[in-house]
Amino acid sequence: MKILVALSGGIDSSVVAHLLKAAGHDLIGVRFLLWTDPLAPALAEILPSKCCTAQNAARAGKVAKDLSIPYHIVDLSEEFKRTVVDPYLADHRKGLTPNPCIGCNKNIKFGKLMELMKKFGCEKMATGHYARIASEQLPPSVAEDRDLPLQKGHHTQRQLLLEATDKSKDQSYYLYGLSQEQLRHCLFPLGGMHKADVYALAEKFGVPFDNDTYRESQDLCFFPEKSPEEFLKRHLRHALQPGSIVRRDGVIVGSHEGLPLYTIGQRRGLKIGGLKIPLEVVAKDSGMNALIVAEQGSEQVKQLSVTDLAWVSWKPEEKIPTPFEYRSRSLSPRKCGTLTFSRSKGLFRFERPSPMPTPGQSLVLYRGEEIVGGGVIG
Question: C-alpha 333: how far from its chain's center?
Fold first, then answer.
């Protein structure tokens, strides 16, 4: 089989390439160049956990050379800036805390991989993501009731997105935006493995890495720092107006450096000390330019709004409450609730009152190990 392999230069994608080559597949490697912050200090150290390090670039090239496969470097800087970074900054201006990786996966990484897969005449595209895909056959009578782009034939086939076997490394939360067509052409060879097995394979295949210095890619890739605070200060400086940190009763307990720098649920970095119970951010008042805080855990919500709903392989009937498990963070414990929706908007009611999830992040819906869909928290 002819397969396009995404070679980021990390251990995971490197092992994927070796596994597929060892299985006898015909491979083409591709690495994307993405936008990085030109306003970052010239001497800023790029953290080892970033995917854009020189070490990763060198490793990707070495893997392609060792496997004797064609290797393409594709510059997506302008497209990445336009479709990922600019919306990220715009959402912060609105007081949200967006998750740019979800849109990037759908529109940049897998979107561009699909284009290149077809261009190079490949049948599949493979990445190092920790997730699994399963196929399910449906009789035509069931398929007629679906409005998702399913593969038609004697039976209708749909692709199910499943959690990885290694739950501590699972990345399926970030993939709920992928289409049926994308999933139909995806291969996730590491989805059924544990990370320890992948490291063992890296040693077996001679993939270069240092146990003491290697860090997995896990931070936002377009600025060198671990936290986005300095990046936001550089690019939103005109939107950052200092103001007061206040309790619900109006008592001022501190000062903030600009609302876009803070997120709902944040406790660290508020510079408010001397309290038995720490304070957390529970709201932003843009009219008063005030950051609202309360004692940690004191404010709970029973429901929240969800927008931009996307469904992976099936969706429930509209306007009828449907129970789901959910996550509002990628590796947080799953909890239960009920979604009622119409078109792309919905209301999610928690089974039990819960701390307010962060607006701008994603609420991802589960049915067992299956990722059913998700949307953006309003």
Answer: 17
